[in-house]
Structure formats: C-alpha cells, structure tokens
C-alpha cells in the first residue's frame, strides 16, 4: 500500500471511512448508527455522512424502527441500517467437458439458484457456448433476477487460460484451444467476466468452504488422466506468469516416459482420455482382481503420486487436497502420504476434496464475489506520482 | 490493507503523512519544504509538523541554506532538508561452505564496506560462527561504524531454514542441521537478525541488481551437485510453508533414480559433494575429451535440466536465472532452453546469473534493507477489532 500513497488527503479518508462502514454493516444483521460509531471508531457525524451516501447508492437501507424495537418507546428512537445484499448478484460458472453448471448468489454470497446441464464431450465451441447461455438464462429465470442486476461473472474451464480470458491450450474439448472465451461471454453480460482454469478455481473453493479452510498454502490436485493442479500461496491463487502454474501433466514427457493414457491401458494401445467408459472399465476390472488391469492401475497411480510429489517439492505447501475422479481410488491417498513423508523434511497434510461436483462453479462464484468486494470494501488510494 | 483498517482516524493520518514525507525525501538529494509540499500533496503546515518530528528522531537533517543557494539572496531563504541515510546501518552476511562474506551499507543501501574470509569446509558450527563474528568485527572496524548503529542484520546459508532462524536441514556443513543459527547470532547484535536460505537470497539479489531486474516471477537455480532454488512470485520471495520450497534436490530420489553425486562419478563410486577438487577434475577431463568423464557430465547435466523443468512446470515463472558453479558449464543453458520450449506452452526466459560471488550476501543486504524500510516507510494501521 505504501507504494501507492501520495498523501493522507481528505478524499482518501472519505473512501477509507466508506469502506470501513460497509465492512461493519456487511457481516451483521441490522445495526444502529450508535453501533456503527462504536464498530468503526469513526465519529457520529462522519458515520451519518457515509451512511447517507451509501443509502443513495442503494447499497444500504434504513430499517423501519418498528421491526427492530417493538415495545421500546422511550427516548429518541435509534436508527437501524442494513447492507442490501440484494443490490446486486454474482454468477459462478463451470464450462466442463461433460457438464455446464451455473450458481447465482447475492452480494453477500448467499446462493439463490443453481442449475446444471449435461453437455456431450463432442460438442464444438459454438454448441457448448449455446448450452452455457441457456443454463444462465434458466438460473436467472428460476431466481427471478434480472441480467442487469449482475455485478460480476466468473467462469472455470479446463486448460491454460490467459489473463484476458483466451484459452491458450484446452485439449479436453473440441475447438477450445485458441478460443477467446472471455470476449465471447462478455457479449452476454454488461458486467466484468473473468475466465480461470478449473483446478485453480477448485483450490479456491476448497479454501473457501471445503477441506482447505484456514490453510494458506494449498495445492489442489485434479486427479485424472491428465492431472492438473491449482495452488494457493498465502491464501491467494498462484496462476504463474503465463497462467500455466501446476501443469504437471507434462512431467511424464520429461525423459520420454509413458503417458498416463498408456500407463492405464490394458491393451498396449493408449486410452482415449475422453472415453470415461474405457477408464471405468479398467478400474472395475482391477477391483475385480484382473491382473493386467491391476498392474495398469498401479502404474497409473505411481505416475500420479510422482507428479504430485514433484509439485510439493517445488512449492512446499501446508496441505494437498486431491479431487477429480481418480482421487477416490484406493491407491492414491496413502501412497501419496508415504511418498511425501519419504522425500520431504516436513510432509504436507493430504486430504480428499470435500466439495463435490459443484467445486469448480463454487470457486468461480468466490472469484466473482472477490471482485465485488474489491470494489466495495477496499480502499483504493490515488495512483503514485 | 482494508482488512486491518478500523477507521481513518487522525493518528493513522499522521503516520501516513510521516511515511509519505520520508519516501519523498529518501530518494532525492536535498529538498525544500516547498518541493515536499508539492511531492506529497500534503499541506505546508502538515509537512512542517512532520519534518519537525523527523528531525527530532535523527532521520532528517536541515541543510544549511548557504550550501544550496549560494548567490541567491532575494526573499525569505528556502529551507532545505535531507534524509540522514547515515542514521543507521544494515549488514548482509553469507555463511557459506567455503566463504564467510559480510557487506555493510547505510539506510539508503549504499555499500560502505565489505569483507570475506575463507572457511574450511570441515569447520564445526562453533568455529564457523567464530569466523562470522570476526568478519563482522573487521567490516565494522574498516568502516568506522559502531555496532549499536546497526538496525538490521540478515544472513544467508545453505539448507532449509525455519522462520525463527533454525536450520532444519543443512547437510553441506558439519553441525549445521538443527543449529539455532538465529538465536546464536542474535547474541552478537541488539537489532533484529533474520536467517534465510542462500538460494532464496540469490533470487532476491538478482531481482534487485542482477539478471532479474524488473521481473516479478523468477526462479533462481543454484546449480551444483545438490541443486537448490529460490523463487519470487509477484516480486516477493516464496519460502513455502516449511521454508523448503524449491528443494528440487530430492527429485532424483523419486523413482529411485541415481543421485547427482553418482551421475557425475567416473568410477561408479559417488563423488563427495564437498570435494570440489574431484568435481573439478571430472569437468576438466570432460573438456579435454575423456569419454568416461564426458558421459558422466552429460548424465549429470540431463538430471539438472530435468529438475529445473519440473520446477518450471510447477511455478510457471517469467524467467529462470541459473547460478552456482555448474551454471557456467557448456551443457546447461542451451539444453535447458530446448527442454523448456518442448514441454511448456510459453517457455520462460533462461539467463545466466549476473552477480558474482557476492550474490548471497547482496540478497541478505536487500532483506535487511527491506526490514528497515518496512519500519520507516510503511503505514502500519492499528489492529482490527
């Protein structure tokens, strides 16, 4: 912050005061002016001035005294105020290989509606975007919320995504590599639209409401044929300079080792990574005791454990959260714990992801809310000269 | 910042103003009161009040008008002020396997004296600390600076170092693992003493004055038999939860691959990592065309390139800086660039370290200066309620 300060002038002070007052209002129920004075440490006239501005902007509403003080009639009635979480809305969206999922919440993050549609893995980009648009329309209709009421939209998708929302590499879905997903979706909304890698959003979601609550340095591993990872450092997402941090899926290429698709194959011919049925068949055979399938599954899991260990050595996180379809396999969590305790001085905790199929959309919702809170609750000092 | 603000009260404003005024003074030569008013955006009475406090504390001095305005005699003479960089001093120290190096600078970071002593690799911890103490004394004596004038001391050393300054793992030097280096050195100084991993400090130094100036996401690789790495993310050091981030030296253990000491051996018997002469002999033989030595060197370099690539996949930096004795070998930079361009979507730049043998001590000096600047130039808001 000190980098950007030019001086403690009175307009900075006004913005600090507005942010502080909003923060005091946001978390609670209705609050009296007197309570706000106590909570913020500001003077009564200052709080009155700030509140007046916030009521005008629609972010704060005065609550009828009757609602709060039934039966209390002595003296001047206290004035009660509340944060109007319904003043705006946020969308969290997952554009996945098999599902499109949309979550709608108010400015306080309370979920108002959610909707998911299946999408065929063979859909081209146009068709897939069509499903996204109709799912969004369905959620807004369900909740009776106008599109103009959206303050922020965040979207998660597999692949390496630029800061401006272009998919630089997206092999999981047809037509995805090179797609300017941000620009395409911005046509449907008037508010800012952010695109983010799905594993990155899963890390954020697990930190918000899942297995990583309260942990600052977290690696989320999306365990599957093409493992991806998202990392939080000091509670903040680490995207990497080109948005490709955690792309450990390429590790097996070093030293010309076999791909996961080949490792998990029982026929010598690599599996199609999008062919979930074939993957499921190998796993089922292995469970049933088929020797060839068991060897293939072991090979595949050893590779996964190796890749995650490399990531841990590079980042030294406090916690590794494992999600994705391969997370539930028997041979993942324990071998990973053993490997990590062998090769690190202080092995991180290893936990199964706690959030289910909504994890990516929930992470997107959190990113959208962060964007709103940045506007509302952060003091934005004037640029340095 | 918004997290910690409780309200824009007047004491916060006073601190903002003092920090802003000091920053405006620090970078330039002598400055007039009128210039300070312009540079800070503060009112003249405010700047006068702040300057009075800073002169009292010894951080600012009024400059005699005669020095600045010879010949200019009309009107009321302007008042000139300067930052007193000599009000305090900072030490940057490297405690290495073969050298102890100490750099002394003033509060503006201008180097006043530097001194290095050779240390035998077999010295035990007590003997090594003795060399550190005598080198510090020598530097202070050279510069004529009193020990009480030190505001901050930072120390770099190989190994995994706790935040409190305990060496958790330090195999490069006898008696180093488990040593509470922070506590031991704090006995010699009244000011704060910080201990940090040497590769981390090298990353900081190259970012400050070397090959990584202006780059935020940087990996510094200390290339040697036991490669270590330090990473900056967004211009800040990433230590990892347990201070072990970048400890890619353990990667070769995964999959039971051979150690670098074995890879570089020409006899089948692993080299002693501390035996620099043996390492130098293999490298010289390889240069001279000895086939066995050449094969061994190639093996060793392929391993190094592999480890660095794994780190790059995990972190996705903008720039990789390679330092340490192995950085100068022919087979490092080009093969690394090739490997990275094969396995990443956007390969980071690869550069040779620009700072020489002082790189770790320079990084330590920068950390010490950061600590001082945090105290001087940062607004420290009151804790949240």
Automatic annotation (TrEMBL), chains A, B:
InterPro entries xrefs: ATPase_NBD (IPR043129), ROK (IPR000600), WH-like_DNA-bd_sf (IPR036388), WH_DNA-bd_sf (IPR036390)
Key words of the record: Kinase, Transferase
SUPFAM superfamilies from the UniProt entry: Actin-like ATPase domain, Winged helix' DNA-binding domain
This protein's name: NBD/HSP70 family sugar kinase
Signal peptide: none
UniProt GO molecular function: kinase activity
Pfam families: ROK
PANTHER family in the cross-refs: BIFUNCTIONAL UDP-N-ACETYLGLUCOSAMINE 2-EPIMERASE_N-ACETYLMANNOSAMINE KINASE, ROK (REPRESSOR, ORF, KINASE) FAMILY
Presence of keyword Transmembrane: no
Similarity-based family: Belongs to the ROK (NagC/XylR) family.
Presence of keyword Chaperone: no
